[in-house]
């Protein structure tokens, strides 16, 4: 079976960990996952078309998914529209109940609108808060956002909000997505 292409965009490394965990989970289904750090390597349309499914996992900074993910999706929109697709947003808002779905996440709704894609899977996963790692300005800004949204503001704390069981369940869903036979062949006759 062709590999599942697992593309990610990470600034501070947490999204990379999530992508690696997804790849490991997908492997338990006997399915190979090709990891691509979009800041280093952007798979081309041929690679996308050859994949059994594609997942784009991208962190949010200041309201936007990271530029490497946005440019990748914009450049290869048509190729991505033709394969089973998962869009996964990593952000801190998703720590709150109800903010992981399209209905509850403004980031997911914006992403769908911006890309005009209709992925089979669209979800958000809570990321990591790491005040000591941030520079002065980012720390102040994130504290302000946390203050407004009722989150932790102690500038010494590091909190991983990620629900790793949810990440594993997502890995299972992506593996199933890659295992699906084409429902429609080119001539319009459903494949056996
Ligand atoms: C400078 C900065 C800006 C951020 N902006 C947002 C934001 O607008 N909304 C949000 O929900 N999370 C925001 N986050 C949280 C990140 O999405 C979260 O920390 C994520 O785990 C980062 O992933 P990475 O380590 O792969 O970069 C921000 C984090 C930083 C450091």
Structural write-up:
- This protein is an alpha/beta fold.
- It has two domains: 4-127 and 163-179, Flavodoxin domain (Rossmann fold), CATH 3.40.50; 129-161, no CATH class.
- It is built from seven helices and eight strands.
- Strands 1, 2, 3, 4, 5 and 6 form a six-stranded mixed β-sheet that branches.
- Helix 1 (14-27) crosses helix 7.
- The longest helix is centred in the C-terminal third of the chain and has 16 residues, at 164-179.
- The chain is globular, with a radius of gyration of 17 Å.
- It starts with a strand and ends in a 13-residue tail after the last helix.
- Flavin mononucleotide (FMN) is lined by residues 10-15, 59-63, 90-93, 127-128, 134, 138, 142.
- Flavin mononucleotide (FMN) binds at residues 10-15, 59-63, 90-93, 127-128, 134, 138, 142.
Give descriptors for this structure.
single chain; 192 residues; alpha/beta; 2 domains; 6-stranded mixed beta sheet; two-stranded antiparallel sheet; 39% helix; binds flavin mononucleotide
């Amino acid at each position: 079976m062709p590999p599942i292409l697992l593309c990610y965009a990470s600034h501070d490394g947490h999204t990379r960990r999530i992508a690696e965990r997804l790849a490991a989970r997908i492997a338990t289904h006997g399915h190979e996952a090709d990891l691509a750090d979009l800041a280093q390597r952007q798979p081309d349309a041929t690679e996308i078309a050859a994949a059994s499914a594609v997942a784009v996992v991208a962190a949010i900074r200041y309201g936007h998914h990271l530029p490497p993910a946005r440019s990748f999706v914009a450049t290869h929109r048509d190729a991505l529209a033709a394969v089973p697709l998962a869009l996964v947003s990593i952000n801190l808002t998703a720590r709150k109940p109800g903010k992981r779905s399209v209905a509850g996440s403004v980031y997911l709704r914006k992403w769908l609108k911006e890309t005009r894609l209709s992925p089979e899977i669209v979800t958000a996963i809570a990321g990591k808060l790491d005040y000591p790692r941030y520079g002065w300005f980012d720390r102040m800004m994130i504290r302000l956002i946390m203050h407004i949204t009722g989150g932790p503001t102690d500038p010494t704390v590091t909190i991983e909000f990620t629900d790793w069981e949810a990440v594993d369940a997502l890995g299972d869903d992506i593996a199933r997505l890659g295992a699906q036979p084409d429902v429609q062949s080119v001539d319009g006759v459903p494949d056996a």
